[in-house]
Amino acid sequence: MEGIVFPEEREVIRIKVKKCEGLMQPEYRKFAVDPQITSYEVLRHTLRRAFHLQSDFTISYLSHDSEGQEVWLSLLSDWDLDAAFISSSHPYLRLRVDARPFEDVLDDWDIISSKDTPEPVPHPVVPNVPNNRQKPQAAPLRRSLFSSVQTTLTRMTQVLSFNDTKEEEDEKPMKPALSDTEFHSFLDESGRLIRPEDLRLRIYHGGVDPALRKVVWRHLLNVYPAGMGGKERMDYMKRKANEYLKLKAKFLAQDTEEAQFVKNMVKKDVLRTDRTLDFFAVPDDHPNITALSNILTTFALTHPDVSYCQGMSDFASPLLVTMRDEAQAYVCFCALMNRIKPNFMLDGEAMTHKFQHLTELMHCVAPEFTEYLYKQQAEDLFFCYRWMLLELKREFAYYDALRMLEVMWSSLPPSPPQKDLELIDNVALMANLSIARYPYNEADRRQKGRRSSSSSNQSISPKSRDHRMSNRRGRRRTSSSASDKEDGNHNSMVDGRGSRLPSKDAEPKSTKRTTQQITHGSSSSTHSNGKSSLVPNGPKAAIPNGELPSPARSPMVFKKQLNGLSMSSLPPPDKFGYGNPFMLFLCLTILLQHQDIVMREQMDYNDIAMHFDKHVRKHNVNKVLNKARTLFAEYLKAQLQKSASSNGSGPNQC
């Protein structure tokens, strides 16, 4: 049945609870439980502690009747709790707690203390004293006590309600999504985009209406050359679609060993990409699956310098889902890959700079957290590798990720192609990088992988084609976590070496990563777990003198290395984050949101990595975006002040 998720399919159930008590203002709490181990009694205990309940209370959950209308049902047993888990809707199971009013509880307090009650008087001596004299004496005390308690609870409720209101404000978008009417205000009579920067700024603050993404994303991804009118853009896309169809027919018809290798590699990933999404929750031979495979295979065979690397399917998937057209999705994918291709190149330059810049940014904003990570040998931030490689696409629920991506894209300046968007890399094909020249058999691949591993300390020459291909194959990981198999995705948490992060019990602390392994490891070096590295060989991950501090150094030395860093001393926006600075602030925000629990629980590297692995697709996109925008604004302001203080000696980078 569509819309129903059974508890065994979900490791965590997120719960939002509303507590009602008489005329008092409702209180709200949010938490998550494991449906496999949470019983009715455990839930009651959790709610009692969450709201500090001293009296009895009842629980009900929101469900739907046969006509689809919302209805609150009583939750009285484990059976009811199972039904609530089954009928819970995303993103929360909504509960309501009804507490008994405080005055009803006070009626049961017959005696509060000995001095508050009169001494008994014998009836024969004082016959006029009524038998119920004690109750009128205690009533003023009850009224006074209840008034005091009610005042205290009212103040507490106001404070908690303020916090809840502030939290709800943080979860709201800054502005509503861009509408069709508003989008046309950025166009002239012929449909020409006349204010591209203003359009991007508007999307940066509110995102795009989902129905409009198919049109607006092409502008954000720099598909069109500048100055095109509406009719020209339509003709342009038709021409590019036909060009793609010809390329697909030509290259997918190739039956060489290398072409088959690429096709198999792509197919393996496509069958694990976003399969819980309705668009891809189809049989393996469905046209939607075939279209995604065609896009990635055609790109890999027409761009042999980068070929195919795992993770590219994460970028192609949203484009195909949004465009609903294979050819148009391919055109958008080529435009996107023009910018993110360095993420997948063997020299590792792009990823090295991103790690360096994120570390420097962390020290500017959270120096204590940075120092803690150093002490835990996690200062390299390699547990963020997936975030930066895939630009955080897997860290949010699917449609939240689409909004995050469009906001990120809008933070970049327009960079339209001067003439046509190239759908094939003719330079790479002509430079003897054609797939016909690649090694053919698996034995060659393994042999070359061993040779590249033995020369891990040597730099990779871009002219060494065979070496590049053997390394590229070596860096493709094939492992996936158990959770990946459950949701049909290959979202395993990988560290910078491309290996599945081991549990803290699987790797003794004495055998933790060394800086030498990180900075000198070959892109295809084989580790003890028998898996190949995903991280390409390249320049040392610098902080900031060109190398990571050795674990043998003291925290004071590490701190001294980063001393003097401030927002104004960070690289300018066109260099920061390898040209995508806002992504670094998204990563920073997620780290800061988990800073307290990481430090409180004294997590080491493996604990931190597994902690964030459990939060895949669970981050709150509005909270992250709003905080990231605030931090990014501080950075741009500092850069603007630095630019102004240079007396106009250079262009304004902001």
The termini sit apart by: 51 Å
Question: Percent helix among the residues?
Answer: 40-55%
Q: Taking Cα atoms only, what radius of gyration do you get, to the nearest Å?
A: 30 Å
Structural class: mainly alpha
**Beta-strand proportion:** 5-15%
Short description:
By secondary structure, the protein is mainly alpha-helical. The protein has helices at 40-51, 78-87, 102-106, 134-170, 180-184, 196-206, 213-220, 230-251, 257-270, 287-302, 312-323, 326-340, 349-365, 367-375, 385-389, 398-410, 426-430, 442-454, 465-474, 482-487, 515-520, 555-562, 581-593, 595-600, 605-613, 621-645; strands at 13-20, 27-33, 57-64, 70-74, 93-99.
Description:
There is one protein chain. The protein has 654 residues and is mainly α. It has helices at 40-51, 78-87, 102-106, 134-170, 180-184, 196-206, 213-220, 230-251, 257-270, 287-302, 312-323, 326-340, 349-365, 367-375, 385-389, 398-410, 426-430, 442-454, 465-474, 482-487, 515-520, 555-562, 581-593, 595-600, 605-613, 621-645, and strands spanning 13-20, 27-33, 57-64, 70-74, 93-99. The chain has a five-stranded mixed sheet. The two termini are 51 Å apart. The model is unreliable at 1-8, 102-146, 432-554 and 650-654 (pLDDT under 50).
